[in-house]
Write a structure and sequence with these properties.
- Helices cover 6% and strands 41% of the residues.
- It is mainly beta.
- The protein has a domain at 8-127: Jelly Rolls (Sandwich).
- The strands form 3 sheets. It has a 6-stranded antiparallel β-sheet with strand order 1-2-3-10-5-8.
- Strand 11 (130-134) and strand 12 form a beta hairpin.
- The chain is globular.
- The chain starts with 13 loop residues before the first strand and ends in a 12-residue tail after the last strand.
- 15% of the residues are buried.
């Protein structure tokens, strides 16, 4: 088991995993972030946590809600705003943001509207499978995190789609 302690100064910020990196020039203009993954480094099992660093004018992730997991954000540095449902709120160093599971009314997105890097601690339950919805783009995602395979690599199932592209239960049987 890894040591249960890591110091903030020892964290390594890395680009997001390829599956979550902007895929077009248009999305790269809006989205950018580096993450320091804390939970796996200290042996966490039921909570995930990282520090997310967002450059000025950018967002880390699309506007989304979780049907299963709850998130909490704590602003460490910088300022910006958070969209929650149909409302937008200013955020600054020292603010806590609660994002419980639910429908579009709990959808959230943190945006760096300041002129310096925005850093926040993100804490989440890690129940799986998870269903996320993306109200701005009318998508949904299903994610199932499984234990690592014999090679030690993450073993996950992820599907992003739109409801209108759904096939029937008996399709192809």
């Amino acid at each position: 088991m890894p040591t249960p302690i890591i110091n903030l100064n020892d964290l390594k910020f890395e680009p997001r995993p390829a599956a979550f990196a902007p895929q077009t020039e248009e999305t790269a203009l809006k989205y950018d972030a580096k993450l320091a993954h804390i939970a796996p480094a200290i042996g966490a099992k039921k909570l995930g946590y990282n520090i997310t660093a967002v450059p000025p004018g950018k967002r880390a992730f699309p506007f989304h809600n979780h049907r299963v997991n709850e998130e909490l954000f704590f602003i460490l540095e910088g300022s910006g705003e958070v969209r929650i449902g149909t409302e937008t709120y200013p955020v600054k160093k020292g603010d806590f943001i609660a994002c419980p599971p639910g429908g579009p009314e709990t959808a959230h997105q943190i945006i760096n509207t300041g002129d310096t890097e925005l850093k926040y601690l993100a804490v989440s339950t890690k129940q799986t499978p998870e269903i996320a919805e993306y109200p701005d783009s009318n998508k949904f995602g299903v994610l199932d995190e499984r234990p690592a395979g014999p090679d030690g690599k993450p073993n996950r199932f992820m599907y992003i789609g739109r409801e209108e592209l759904n096939v029937s239960y008996w399709d192809g049987e």
